[in-house]
Amino acid sequence: MMGIKVQAFLLAAGLAVVAALSGSALSQQVAGGDYFTVQQARGTPTVSLGGTVIPYKEVTLSAQLPGRVDYLAGIEGDFFKQSTLLAALNVSELLAKRNSALAQLANADAQLRTAGVQYTRELWSPKSDAATGGMGIPNLFDQMFTDPMESFSGTRSRGAERYADVYSSQVQIATARNAIMSAQSAIQAIDAKLRDAKSLAPFDGVIIKKYIEVGDTMQPGQPLLVFADVEYLQILVDVPARLRPGLSEGMMLQAKLDVGNQVVPVRVAQIFPMADAQRHTVKVKFDLPQGVSAPGMYAKLMVPDFTAPARNYPVIPMTAVRYNGSLPGVYVVGADGRPQLRLIREGERLEEGYISVLSGLSEGERILRNPDVGVTSGWSSAAPGKR
Question: What does each C-alpha distance from 89 to 66, 68, 199 come to in angstroms?
């Protein structure tokens, strides 16, 4: 809804300018040639807010374990596809621990197979049934008389002995299985550390900052490099809380880039749900067109202030604006007919090549429509009554 209001304002301002130029102002331009009489356009006041160009996605890759840097893929500005190896730490110690864990796994597997054989033997040839010793007649006498008498008198229970032997074999099998699980878990933990020793590109992007060189010794938590997707850029702006109700996701506004004073359309991409408790501002992200800026650049946004009453703003052609560094100004024709360079504050770009002026000019003043390069003058202060 707010986006519709802004577009309606821009359209109304442009039509007002065209209608004004179709009257007496247009005849003055034709008569004066290079002169333009400042016109007025009524619209919603705007506030100029500064912001920083940031990547759409940005991550800081950090060391997850101690070690020496063995590999670094490139330097700032190098592009890499997703899952490309960017940095790697030395893993000699981890590989040694993994080999030890593999040996423990092999030992546990051997113990499991041995316990299984002992259990099978106990099922088919119980140790409790084995002869107690001796040969010939004494052994036969024990089997025929001594063992039965012991069972009959209750001094020996072969069933209990067999149960105990079978249970012991089962315990050995379970112990061997637990040893195998422990060795496998150790191998999995080492494999996870081996993966952590490598930093892969989480998406297509470029290295925008690196903190390491090959041979550096790292500790857990230390940053390795910053990786970002710079194909799509955004502007991060701290918007005063009073201007927050005038913004909505998808709304189109205008931004002025620091390099070349280029004005580009931007779209409200994200409005943070909570304001800063100390500064009372809300962070808002705006999508930029592709290829118009770079991360870290400064940009200014014209944010509508619907809480302020509508005002009349002077409107001039964009060709009349000249820049002394980053300061915009126009050549105002004085009473003596000589041009004077006056500092102004730019507003929004309108249709048909016009721009609104927030301060520095008043309706009815004459300015050079397209001043030549040879026109020179010192800065003049705004006359009394200029906004």
Answer: 8, 5, 9
Q: Please say whether the dihedral angle defined by the alpha carbons of residues 294, 295, 298 and 300, taken in this order, is positive or negative.
A: positive
The one-letter amino acid code at 73 reads A
Check: CB of residue 212 under 8 Å from CB of residue 87: yes
Where do we find the tokens 């502007």? 235
Q: What's the domain count of the chain?
A: 2
- What pLDDT is recorded for position 145? 52
- Is 211 a member of any domain? no
Q: Determine how β-strand 252-257 pairs with β-strand 298-304.
A: antiparallel
Domain of residue 37: give its range: 1-45+309-381
Pair 97, 183 in one domain: yes
Pair 33, 99 in one domain: no
**Encoding tokens for residue 145?**
């008389």
Residue 294 lies in a domain: no
Q: 303 phi and psi, to 5 degrees?
A: -100, 125
Q: Where is average pLDDT lowest: 8-22, 133-147, 361-375?
A: 8-22
Alpha-carbon torsion (118, 122, 128, 132), positive or negative? negative
CA dist., res. 373 & res. 173, Å (int): 95
Tell me, yes or no, whether 27 and 105 share the same domain. Answer: no
Phi, psi dihedral angles at 155 (to 5 degrees) = -80, -10
- Pick from 300, 352, 303: nearest CA to 326: 300
Kindly state whether residue 188 falls inside one of the protein's structural domains: yes
Q: Establish if 170 belongs to a structural domain.
A: yes
**Cβ neighbours of 248 (radius 10 Å):** 12
Q: Do the beta carbons of residue 370 and residue 320 sit within 8 Å?
A: yes
200-225 residue pLDDT tens = 999 999 999 999 999 999 999 999 99
Q: Terminal CA-to-CA distance of the chain, rounded, Å? A: 30
